[in-house]
Amino acid sequence: MKRRPFQIKDVFIVCAILIVALGFRLYKINTPLADFHSWRQVDTASVARNFARGGLDLLHPRYDDLSDTQSGKDNPNGYRFVEFPLYNAMFAITYRAFPSIPLEVHGRLVSIFFSLIIIAILYYFGLSESGRATAIISSVTYAVFPFFVFFSRVVLPETTALSFAFLSLFFLYVSQVKTNALKWTLFFLSILSFSLSLLIKPTTIFYSIALLYIFFQKYRLSFFRKVEPYIYFALSAIPVILWRMYILKFPEGIPASQWLITSVNTFEGQKIIFFKPAFFRWIFFERINNLILGGFLTVPFIVGLIKKQSGFFYAVFLSALAYLLVFQGGNVQHEYYQILILPPIALLIGSGITFFERNRKLFVHPVLLFATLLFLFGSSFFFSYYRVRDFYQYPAELPQIAKIVNTLTQKDDKIITDRMGDTTLLYLIDRKGSPVLGKSLDEYKEKGYSYFVTLTNDTIQQTKDQMKFDVVFENDKFALFHL
């Protein structure tokens, strides 16, 4: 298929879409880091906060949780070895430059910046492979739909990693029609982008399918005899392999992750969900259909999926589908895991709506078709917003409790909170410690912990009954005990 050129008017269209996207993403930008999935966001933010205070030691990222909750091993140094902490370092640097702006705002702004890159690339791919209508609809979907917006401004590394993955696709895609020095410059920029993507979030490896398609599209049957694909993936993989080998030296800082493929954690314990009906219901009906697409937009999405069109779109979609089918447990357990599948969904929606527009003669009347498509888009937006709006909410008492505890304790005091592993309160208090009461308070005292914070009335009363620990502060929301 002949690629459609990018023109001056496309620059103005993209800029307009990006301005709208930025406006949507600035909504509640100052919200305390206690909103949806805050337990994961604060772990990311605390690494950045420690970078900002103690220096950018990228080889020893640390967070506030000193317990054995994540890895099953005591973690007195607070090591946090998951993704390579490039995203954390980015907003640690901007925070040091502008410390008057809260750290979490810096983290959100970095995520927003990279989400805007994704939107621009979606426009380029939509224009090049399908046309301007597909480009506009795809990029607008990513720019304004509630689920896309919320998870484009959370303090998580996924959007940054996804942006680098799509930069790698973009550079490689463009390099295939260039020659000489520019071709190789773009080729190595693509390698650099993909290697950074894998370092930040190894799950972006599934976009190798789309990268392979770009090579195949150019070389066809001689693909396997060409050296470029081998060089590309070898150089891209070396940094993440070295990083994964390095972090094995710090097992206490590596969270357990085997369950992400097959299982979910429930109130009844861990349950296997791998290829069970519940997986398909949760992902394809509850998440993609209801939460992400708001119900009605599923129609153009399916049309975009089944219509004859760009093989590149199918390759991008297969990348997302492979990711869903491998990490079934993680995708059911956590909504933010779906961040990686959002770009192909947007592209297929754009392609599906464009199909209706290009075949308007098949329908009753063009005006009725336009009104119907507008209704589908608008209704889906509001149904999705009805679900996603709660993601911005947070327990108002948590920041208040954190402020009180922060005032009554010293910065070096270690604190226990009985929050079932949720580190949100520890982060808000700005103290290190344990987010779960996994041992007796006497044992914690022996390990150097100074205070215990609980929001549970029964625990408050039981701790008082022991008559071992002084109540430093108590109200109708929580109690702070000195060990």
Question: What's the SSE blueprint?
Answer:
Layout: H1 8-25, H2 38-54, H3 86-97, H4 103-129, H5 132-144, H6 146-150, H7 158-175, H8 180-200, H9 208-219, H10 228-247, H11 259-262, E1 263-266, E2 269-272, H12 277-292, H13 298-306, H14 311-326, H15 328-333, H16 342-358, H17 366-388, H18 397-408, E3 414-417, H19 424-429, E4 433-434, H20 441-446, E5 449-454, H21 457-466, E6 470-474, E7 479-482
Parallel strand pairs: 3-4, 3-5
Antiparallel strand pairs: 1-2, 5-7, 6-7
Helix pairs in contact: 1-4, 1-5, 2-3, 3-4, 4-5, 4-7, 4-16, 5-16, 7-8, 7-9, 8-10, 9-14, 13-16, 14-16
Task: Describe it.
The chain is an alpha/beta fold. The chain has two domains: 8-390, no CATH class; 397-482. The protein contains 21 helices and seven strands. It has helices at 8-25, 38-54, 86-97, 103-129, 132-144, 146-150, 158-175, 180-200, 208-219, 228-247, 259-262, 277-292, 298-306, 311-326, 328-333, 342-358, 366-388, 397-408, 424-429, 441-446, 457-466; strands spanning 263-266, 269-272, 414-417, 433-434, 449-454, 470-474, 479-482. A five-stranded mixed beta sheet has the order 4-3-5-7-6. The chain has a two-stranded antiparallel sheet with strand order 1-2. Helix 1 runs parallel beside helix 5, helix 4 (103-129) runs antiparallel to helix 5 (132-144) and helix 13 (298-306) packs across helix 16.
